Amino acid sequence: MFQSSYPASNILKINQNSIYYTYNIIKEGFYPSNNILCYTSARSSDQFKIPFGEDYQNYILSTTLVTNAANTYLQIKRPNTQVRLSGIHVFGLNLQELEKERERKQNSCLLKPFNKLSNSMKTKRVHAFSEHLTVDFKNTAISYLNPNDHLNLQEIRFAVQEKTFKANFGIQDMEKENQRNESFIKVIDQGLISRDSYRKLAALQSELPRESAIYKTKKKINEQMNQAIPISILNISGQQSSVSINKDSNTINDSEVIKEVLKYIRKAGYRKIKDILLFILLGLINQNVLNPNDLTIHLRLSDDGIEKYEILQEVMTPIINELNDLVINGLKNSTGKIWKIKPYFSSDWKFLSIILGFNASNANYFCPWCLCTKKDIGNKNKVYTIEKNMNQLDPAFFNHHSSEKPPPGHIKPPLLKIIPLDYYIADELHIMLRIWDQAVIITEMRRISVTFQFWQDQETQSWAHTSLMGGDKEAVLKSFDFRVIFNEEYALLINRLWRDFYQLYKDMKSKETDPTQFANKAKQWLDLFLTPS
Fold first, then answer.
1. pTM (whole model) above 0.90
2. Which DSSP string corresponds to 150-175?
3. Tally of CB atoms within 10 A around 529
4. What is the SS3 assignment for 33?
5. Other C-beta atoms within 10 Å of 357: how many?
6. Cα(280)–Cα(283) distance, rounded to whole angstroms?
7. CB neighbour class for 361 (10 Å; exposed up to 12, middle 13-18, buried from 19)
8. What's the domain of life for this entry (predicted)?
9. How far is residue 360's CA from residue 370's CA, in Å, rounded to a whole number?
């Protein structure tokens, strides 16, 4: 057994064959290589020497055998003893453990290369290095600057194997740091940037917040939101799930993950309207969106992409019940005030017709508000008004004792009967999309600063193009010049058609627009649109 705290202590202790030996290392010197460790060769006539006595004035030496020197020394100390010593043990020539310990201590001083460290160890190594630099900075600053100069170390940047690190030493303003991280989270969410993609981006750009800091902030926001607006689970028992998990597959081999996935099949998550409104109410008042002196909330509902009536009927049940309660009883806030809820519904034409229980959006009777048919499309002489209301639909679908039939086109009960029919509004974006469906020239798009590309689908070999949304679509309506495509006469006509529609689009959103004037302008535009080419 080998005991040592060298170099803190020069004392070595070893237990060999139940005999304890204690050695005092005076000085490190010559170490024989492993292949000749079993013997030594003299470099002088005084090969084996044992000093003793006061101030080590006396000594025993042997130029032949190490055992001879050891036993000569023993006879001087104990003349009558019959014991024999092993010179090998006395001089420690057999201490291969000492050689191994020396090599281990030398090797322990060699740090593992940075690229062979784990990520956590890299972080610890860089942090320790930065802290050490801080101490050196403070010690060095004393020699060059006055203590009253208020010197502060703010930042250190260094690179290890071409990877840049930055250590900040200033006092962190946690509030500003959180605001900065939240701003980055907003951009990440809006840009649909994955966690792995941001991690790679932050590794390239050291000025960006670390991915771990972003993740912690995002997790904190999610926890706060889940407390303020809890997620409720809705069973969709009536729907057959097409989800299947093959336990033999290598894709998912964690039984706990499989169990968690199976637990939420045929279930949907939703947040209550009341919780959402109470959470955003104060902010909307501070932004002057809501008037505290007019306790009315105009609530817009829209579509979520599901286009099957039966699924919507089931998943919307809790929302419908809650909306009915809010319309009847209002929303009571923390101060006891009760806000009146006025719901609206806005979506594209197809989804709007599904919610209202229409046969189809392109059926003969297609209009949610009047009784016009496909034959009436393009009839400029007919004045269209709202001819239907929810009171006509209610007895036809919700009163089983009534023999009244619903208006033509309605074959299913409306899902949101609490919303008056004149509060159903077609989405302005989808109205605009009906005027233009295909882009034409990329260079013209670049001129008006709209990103647009054509590409060929590798499977179908058909050509596709960028789908324009919102502001880009509006920019095309306003500024696209058709003279790059058509001759002067046609280009002027089409440009006028698009500019006039853009003006109608703006008027439709303006509260100052006179309905009669708008109708006249719309008819004039329709006349232009139907002009034979």
1. no
2. -----EEEEEETTEEEEEE-SPP-HH
3. 12
4. coil
5. 19
6. 5
7. middle
8. Eukaryota
9. 15
CA distance linking residue 298 with residue 51, whole number of Å: 104
For residue 7, whether the previous peptide bond is cis, meaning omega lies within 30 degrees of 0, is yes
Q: DSSP state, 110? A: S
Name the token pair of 408.
């033509």
Per-residue pLDDT tens over the stretch 41-99? 545 555 677 777 777 677 777 766 777 777 887 777 778 887 776 666 666 655 565 66
Distance between CA atoms of residues 230 and 337, nearest Å = 23
Neighbours of 118 (CB within 10 A): 8
Mean pLDDT of 30-36: 52
Q: What does each C-alpha distance from 312 to 231, 306, 511 come to in angstroms? A: 19, 7, 33
- The CA distance from 359 to 365, in Å, is 9
What distance in Å separates the CA atoms of residue 506 and residue 510, rounded to the nearest whole number?
6
Least confident range from 117-121, 354-358, 360-364: namely 360-364
Tokens 């281990």 belong to 104
Given 3-state DSSP classes, what are the helix, strand and coil percentages for the chain, each rounded to the nearest 5? 45, 15, 40
Q: What is the mean pLDDT of residues 509-513?
A: 87
Q: Tell me, what amino acid is at 433?
A: L
Residue 316 or residue 246, greater confidence:
316
In angstroms, rounded to a whole number, what is the distance separating the alpha carbons of residues 410 and 390? Answer: 12
Contacts 24+ apart (CB under 8 A), 239-242: 239/266, 239/311, 239/314, 241/265, 241/266
Whole-number Å distance between alpha carbons of 297 and 289:
10
Six token digits for residue 496: 């006028």
pLDDT in tens, 180-210: 888 999 888 887 788 888 888 888 877 788 8
**In this structure, are residues 333 and 341 in contact, taking their beta carbons and an 8 Å threshold?**
no
Question: Residue 53 CA to chain centroid, in angstroms?
Answer: 78
Encoded tokens for 162:
């071409």
